[in-house]
Specification:
homodimer; mainly beta; Fumarylacetoacetate hydrolase, domain 2; 2 domains; twelve-stranded mixed beta sheet; five-stranded mixed beta sheet; globular
């Protein structure tokens, strides 16, 4: 099934999205409990929102070998997770605003894992039970700032640099998924989740040895391949097998 | 004035703390609006909670020269902010649990700025208007993991590694504050906020050029000096001029 977070008439709530793109609104949320309502809506009549605003926003860097070699990094020997910031999140369909002084902006299409249960110190085999579902992320990056700054604060966490969505799918066959990124409708990058250095279960089990994962936490799983330098007006679509397509237009600050 | 976040009989709320440590409970919170209630409580009768769980948890690394040279780092040329994770937050009086395999755990006493208003692209002079107040943080760090890992995920963000509190003071004379850290009642480190490389206004103004700050966001301002290797049973008190004292005991995982 699919969980959609949407807004209508100024109110944001969750709904279940059926195969005909009809929404059944719920009271509550998939993390703390919900009840279905009698409200039925059509997907095209609502605004899609970021599927969850996480308590903690985890992001795996350097998890595919082609991307690592392209960016000139060395291959990690163990799964050390990183972080991103909530200010940067935007929804499917919203614009990525490239700051006026940003000159080398790249996409990074990623699988996103959404945590559904509070867990600590779980085995690899137990990880699947704590996952609510999966969505798509675009880990937008400004490569000059990534090289010049001591942290990723603006290279990866400038406002609007973290598109996520369009919804959470509770099922995914992670080992056999393809990620396809298109720019203005033309395929630009394609890779297999099977090529991850450290898989979802290994990462989350390792993290849980030292930290508690909470309902709504998200883990972005890294990217493969290389992006062209994006230009104002470009539309980037990230499609993952079974999860739909996350689409965002890139525009220049001050020119929107 | 002082804002306290506390719990009593299973309910967590905010209150205003007067100079006699009496609490006036409020409905709502200092960030989205509040009304005072007729409930009066004594500080010693409630459990002190983390003063705010931030939407984004910023932390300035390497912002005092003595600490930078001690840790063998080079002095930053510009204010690049970093991040910490909400899972690691604990309140005044709660225990820092040192993982079983943690061998070199240090304290880092820090001034914490609490954002009160949504702002973007503000000048140095405008920063004071977006600050709700100040509290104290202890940026607990495991130095071996800090050296061996690619990120700070367990070195600085293991559960319980981010004590913060005890409350938010809306007034502070930042340029003339002293930070004193004591271990088991004996002074161990003392430094001046005046020795910051980049001050509160410069950091927040710079950040706001690329990102929106939201009510409840926190910015930890870095530390000076050096910590001894903490041992199970140690009590660490961090005192900042006018902000009170943040006290936490350090215990070993499995031995609590």
């Amino acid at each position: 099934m699919r969980w959609l977070r949407y807004s209508l008439e100024g109110k944001t709530r969750y709904g279940m999205l059926d195969e005909n793109d009809r929404i059944t609104a719920v009271d509550g949320c998939p993390f703390q409990g919900y009840e279905t309502t009698s409200t039925r809506l059509r997907l095209e009549d609502v605004k899609i929102e970021v599927p969850v605003v996480p308590p903690t926003f985890y992001c795996v860097g350097l998890n595919y070998t082609k991307h690592i070699s392209t960016e000139g990094m060395s291959i990690p020997k163990k799964p050390d997770v990183g972080y991103r910031a909530n200010n940067a999140l935007i929804a499917h369909g919203e614009d990525v605003i490239m700051p006026a002084d940003a000159t080398r902006v790249h996409y990074e299409g990623e699988l996103v894992v959404v945590i559904g249960k509070k867990v600590r110190n779980i085995s690899v085999a137990e990880v699947k039970d704590c996952i609510l579902g999966y969505t798509i992320g675009n880990d937008v990056s400004e490569r000059n700032w990534q090289a010049s700054d001591r942290t990723f604060w603006r290279a990866k966490n400038a406002d609007t640099f973290k598109p996520m969505g369009p919804w959470i799918s509770t099922e995914a066959d992670v080992p056999s998924m393809q990620t396809v990124v298109s720019v203005n409708g033309t395929e630009s990058t394609r890779f297999e989740t099977a090529d991850m250095l450290f898989g979802v279960e290994e990462f989350i089990s390792t993290m849980s040895r030292y930290l508690t994962l909470y309902p709504g936490d998200i883990v972005w799983m890294g990217t493969d391949g290389h992006s062209p330098n994006l230009q104002p007006g470009d539309q980037v679509d990230v499609t993952l097998t079974g999860l739909g397509t996350l689409s965002n237009r890139f525009v220049k600050e001050g020119l929107t």
